[in-house]
């Protein structure tokens, strides 16, 4: 039986990036992927008429340097998020034409505090314990801001960024996430921010290009890893189809899924406890497809953010030259779970009702309505990414990255920069590869 230098578990951006670096360093590497495709949380679907949808992750931003490099390396085209009119800010029943000062003040305060956090070690801050057991909602409620501002900021930060509710994420995790992405402006904005542009052919194409660039036979699809028998000098990785011996293993999957693998011997208690306390967030991303972008005729950009209603955000997601127009809507946390409990027809009705309130009656009659629930995906189980529950950063955070003998940890949830994003996934894969082949850092 051939012994690999490294077995990588998972062919998302983290695993693929790790494999690239390792192969580049001359190490015998294989990637075991549970699904019948690469890319993980990216999934591009092209409808019969050519309308293209990214059902998973889609945007990249100008400060995401790993993604910039990959897009340039593979010569992929990008296009900016369309903004042909005004965005809607649905705020306490009004539609102000700019962010009210009370929202700006709350975001500024979050930015100020976040700059005090080292993203590599959020647990080291002098007030880490206090902030780790305080929810974002509780902190917002002490900021002498109007209820509407508290609700709005809670929804766009906890929902739009962390795909949770403000009542379930800690202030410490929020501050970590904000600093990891370079501040609320970089995280929330379209122009110049994390939602600046999309990959022309769809985000999944980039993952496919990365995979195609690896030596033949490196990627083994439909090989879910069930068990890892490990020692300080190597491991045997067991899938449904066989056993793969290796000197090192990089586990490049979301933490809760990493916790479902059976390790022998068991992992140290701190690492095991961490994976039990990092559940995936929950966002529902749905696409309403229309013959034409009717909202643009009304001077609207299709972008909206709301302090109430089941949809927190919408965006004009129409690719240039697309045969039809796409309005994409997002629900987060409790709203997303509430929608999920309805049957598809009711869910469609509720979403279109809300789109009609925002953009007018034309929104009620899309030609297509496409949804994809990442909670139903056994190899993802939620999205956009996972977050430590209250108290977890300070009690178990230090176990996030350190290798355990032959085992190394990657995946966007282990990144210190752009955690939760593609870019963080790539960073994590390169970091884990560098732990094994330190002289071949990208
Ligand atoms: C709806 C949605 C919208 C998003 N929007 C954006 C966005 O606009 N921009 C952005 O930057 N990010 C976005 N994200 C987040 C982004 O997609 C992720 O951060 C990134 O893709 C994670 O990459 P990863 O390699 O860490 O993990 P994953 O992509 O989850 O890859 C893990 C891989 O491991 C496989 N796997 C799991 N368990 C096993 C096992 N036991 N054995 C073998 N294989 C296994 C999985 O099948 C998967 O292929 C979004 C995500 C979603 C779902």
UniProtKB/TrEMBL annotation:
SUPFAM superfamilies: FAD-linked reductases, C-terminal domain, FAD/NAD(P)-binding domain
GO molecular function, one term: oxidoreductase activity
Organism for this UniProt entry: Thermomonospora umbrina
Name of the protein this chain belongs to: Monoamine oxidase
Ranges of residues in domain Amine oxidase: 13-436
UniProt family annotation: Belongs to the flavin monoamine oxidase family.
Top-level taxon of origin: Bacteria
